[in-house]
Specification:
Blueprint lengths: L11 E3 L1 H4 L8 H12 L4 E4 L1 H8 L7 E4 L3 H6 L4 E4 L5 E6 L2 E7 L29 H6 L8 E4 L4 E4 L3 H7 L1 E2 L5 H7 L2 H13 L2 E2 L1 H4 L1 H5 L8 H12 L4 H10 L3 H4 L1 H7 L3 H19 L6 H8 L1 H13 L4 H16 L7 H13 L8 H7 L5 H13 L5 H10 L4 H13 L9
Parallel strand pairs: 3-6, 9-10
Antiparallel strand pairs: 1-8, 2-3, 2-7, 4-5, 5-6, 7-8
Bound molecules: adenosine-5'-triphosphate and magnesium ion.
The site of adenosine-5'-triphosphate has 13 residues, from helix 8.
């Protein structure tokens, strides 16, 4: 058995006077869960990204808790809890909108006895449910900065992997041998890039250098998991940076092969993606919602248009051709990342509505504004205009009409009934 724990150090306890964590940033529910398990006699800490963020002075977006209580024992203490997961059996404790993840300390599968079957032939971890000590739990995590624990009782950060120091100097370092750890779980590559983009850190050389050559391993990850990871990249508030990271590490062609192909020499598509991702980042950072369907609609727009063009040439009517091309495009992408049905329908609707923005006259123009997907389709159209695909005037017209009363709106479309219509392309 290979010993890969070269960043394994003796336990370092960092006192409050040094880490200066603002405990007001710890959500009450997470504190309650920790305190309940502590009272029941279990060793329990906050762990992972929330401790990392607290040390950095950032408000954590979710809280993970690690304990030596077994999953069934955790559940006994919370009515609002559920055992989930097969690969990792963890407990979710539900509170309204957010849930708190509680997991039992686990050992790295390959280190435990009789666990050879936990790793597949390619080195990938298939199951990881071997319980262990807090120390073993620390070294099976991905990066040293994600392996910090917070002891709420003593207000101490517990560090088994030198993660505190790495965090202070802003370095993302894999625990153990990076190549082995990427082979076990290729998603760690995406996580490294996301944390760099989001937290403005650096990735140490030996953690970064295997990514380019090992990126193809991501294609072995189930599409549903990749969808989740891709959404995390694009909803991080740093979607543009993440996209550039994917491009720099040749991962775009692994995750979005048809997008990458269409991007070749297409400045306008590249600008569209750029503008859309910056827009997403602005929305996320100001607390607004974003729909995953919108991002996928943008990324797959050109591949869709190419299919639509072929269907036009075959004389297939727009309405039919748009749906068929849309569904085909989405299906092509789902060989890599799944796209849940509720999103794929929205994507196709956003695309299909695009040609309706050319019709700025008659009843249909007015009806468009009450379509359930109008808002998304309108935002999409404005981004197209900003990237030079459409006249800015079109966008301005639709922006203006939304601000008017019904009577004025009718007047505006009536004026267009009298003017000859102009078209930039068939969209
Ligand atoms: P954020 O929630 O801000 O995206 P995070 O680090 O908390 O970042 P989670 O997915 O919530 O990410 O995971 C919680 C913790 O679980 C991580 O901090 C890390 O310690 C561990 N972890 C998550 N994914 C992996 C993985 N693929 N391999 C090893 N450890 C992981
Ligand atoms: Mg987290």
């Amino acid at each position: 058995m290979e010993n890969t724990n070269n960043n394994h150090h003796a336990l370092n306890r960092i006192p409050a006077s040094e880490h200066r964590i603002d405990e007001n940033k710890i959500c009450d529910k997470a504190r309650y869960v920790v305190e309940t398990l502590l009272k029941a006699g279990y060793e329990t800490c906050l762990v992972g990204g929330c401790v990392r963020d607290l040390v950095l002075g950032i408000e954590p977006k979710d809280f993970d808790i690690a304990t030596n209580a077994h999953p069934e024992q955790i559940c006994e203490h919370f009515d609002n809890s559920r055992l989930i997961g097969r690969r990792f059996r963890i407990v979710h404790v539900y509170y309204h909108r957010n849930n708190i993840e509680v997991s039992t300390f686990r050992a790295q599968a390959s280190q435990a006895n009789n666990q050879a079957s936990n790793a597949g032939a390619n080195g990938r971890i298939l199951r990881d449910n071997t319980f262990g000590t807090i120390e073993e739990d620390a070294i099976r995590r991905d990066f040293t900065i994600n392996a910090l624990y917070y002891d709420i009782e003593k207000s101490e950060v517990l560090d088994y992997c030198n993660g505190y120091q790495d965090l202070k100097v802003g370095n993302i370092c894999m625990i153990g041998n990076p190549e082995t750890r990427y082979r076990e779980d290729p998603v760690r590559m995406l996580r490294a890039l996301r944390f760099r983009a989001k937290l403005n850190l650096t990735i140490e050389d030996k953690t970064q250098s295997p990514i380019k050559s090992m990126g193809h391993l991501l294609s072995e990850i189930p599409p549903a998991r990749l969808f989740d990871e891709v959404i995390k990249l694009f909803h991080s508030g740093y979607a543009m940076r993440c996209f550039q990271e994917l491009d720099n590490f040749d991962l775009l062609h692994v995750l979005f092969p048809i997008t990458q192909k269409a991007l070749n020499h297409d400045e306008s598509f590249s600008l569209l993606i750029h503008n859309a991702l910056e827009n997403t980042d602005t929305r996320i950072r100001s607390g607004k919602s974003v729909n995953p369907a919108f991002i996928f609609a943008i990324l797959l727009w050109r591949p869709y248009l190419q299919l639509l063009e072929q269907s036009n040439q075959q004389g297939i009517p727009y309405s039919e051709g748009s749906w068929a091309s849309g569904r085909r495009t989405v299906l092509d992408q789902t060989t890599v990342t799944s796209i849940p049905k509720r999103f794929s329908v929205t994507i196709c609707e956003i695309w299909k509505l695009q040609n309706r923005f050319q019709k700025k006259h008659g009843r249909k123009a007015l009806q468009l504004m009450s379509h359930p997907r109008f808002r998304a389709a309108y935002d999409f159209m404005c981004l197209r205009a900003r990237s030079g695909e459409l006249d800015e005037e079109d966008c301005a017209w639709w922006t203006q009409i939304q601000t008017l009363s019904e009577q004025e709106q009718r007047k505006m479309v009536d004026q267009n009934n009298k003017k000859p219509r102009k078209r930039k392309n068939n969209q």
